[in-house]
Amino acid sequence: MKHLTTILLGSLTGAGLFLFPSLVLAESVAQSMDLSGHWVGFLALGLFTVAYVFVVLEEVLELRKSKPMMVAAALIWVAIALVYKDRGLSSVAQAAIRHDVLDYGELLLFLIVSIAYINAMEERRVFDSLRAWLVNKGLSYRQLFWVTGILAFFISSVSNNMTTAMLMCAVVMAVGKDNAKFVGVSCVNTVVAANAGGAFCPFGDITTLMVWQKGVIEFWTFFKLFVPSVVNFLIPAALMHFAVPKEQPASIRARTATRRGAKRIVVLFLMTVLTAVLFQNNLQLPAAVGMMAGLTYLQMFGYFLHITHQDEPELGVDPLYGDDNAEPDDSGSLRFDIFHHLARMEWDTLLFFYGVVLCVGGINFIGYLHHLSGFLYGELGATPANVLVGVISALIDNIPVMFAILAMHPEMSEGQWLLVTLTAGVGGSLLSVGSAAGVALMGQAKGIYTFMTHLKWAPVIALGYLSSIGVHFLMNGGLF
């Protein structure tokens, strides 16, 4: 991954570290020590395990997941630094952690822009308008089951799966609140669809984004996973279809109008995506730089909305979706503010991601991932290992799993890299706790969509999972 100079260079050593990171990294790899049998290695594994237990118990302890993971990251690297300093190799550990921090920084900038656009569209009521349109269509339960699933599949290819799933769940809850059976099976369908949709596009999931930004797979190559992703969604949906009630829900009328500039912000987001692709593929610049360039589109449009401001019409509060989160100006009217959308980032998730990157980076630097890679991709074999990755992703968040694989960087064909991208993306659908979408919907449809509700459909979801892998081998066999 390309590295960016981020601070002023104060010495020749500092200059070499930032201007020639690949050389420094190569030196660090050459001089790094295998500490997997050292007390530091055991301490690192213990810290990471304890931190992850706290992450799993987040709802019970009411402790945000970023806190234990960031503490573990700091302690792991302090332990590593002490050992390397004692042996006169501080520069080696320093180069390694700088590499991880720069990797995280690039992903952070990318995600900040993407989330800023999603928040802006939400504030302009793009998603509220879509929900109201669906509610007003007067669809049957079975029609709504398919419409919400298909929309979740395609929207999650450019938005994160949690936002997409919650959007569709709001529609399901509004229309079918009196039919728990419909809500339960539709939530399962939504989770599967949202995870499948994020697997074939670099913008759909953080794991897919990481693979693209690492330069392992070209942007357009990811779309070879489109048909396997469709199969992953369609097979469980087709079998769950028969469990959806044939009834017609009571008619509901909802009214939500978009705010000024909503459609233009959607167009600007698409232009930003194209800019990021152009930067990465044609200019060989980091995609994050293209995304930051795209953020200026939103900034300038925000300025245009500001100087041409007219008081927004009184849209009222939609009883289906609750109050609005827009910020009024001093006069009490609503104005578009880009910095308000930046402030509304999901910082807990972003900081959790930081902790994961540094924890896994530290464990990799200690030497554990080298041994794990030798077992998984040497003794076990690439295909069984990559299929297993999906199963692991149902139990452990797919972000640390994929970051670990990228840190190992096993020698694999393009077909195998696409396979692990697919399995890491859709494997989380096997359990409700396997993805952010599932966890979010358990809170949104509390008591209706539960762990056991999802587990009931695990066999058909697993059938879709295995079928998508088979279709990938069938369609993309030339890439293996």
Automatic annotation (TrEMBL):
Domain Citrate transporter-like per the UniProt entry, residue ranges: 52-425
Bilayer topology: Multi-pass membrane protein
Membrane-spanning ranges: 36-57, 69-84, 104-120, 141-158, 219-244, 265-281, 287-305, 349-367, 387-406, 418-445, 457-475
Domain of life, per lineage: Bacteria
Keyword Metal-binding carried by entry: no
Record's keyword terms, sorted: Antiport, Ion transport, Membrane, Sodium, Sodium transport, Transmembrane, Transmembrane helix, Transport
GO biological process, one term: sodium ion transport
Transmembrane helix is among the record's keywords: yes
Location of the protein in the cell: Membrane
A Pfam family annotated for this UniProt entry: CitMHS
GO CC field: membrane
Gene Ontology molecular function, alphabetical: antiporter activity
Family as reported in the entry's similarity comment: Belongs to the NhaD Na(+)/H(+) (TC 2.A.62) antiporter family.
Protein name: Sodium:proton antiporter
Organism name: Methylomonas koyamae
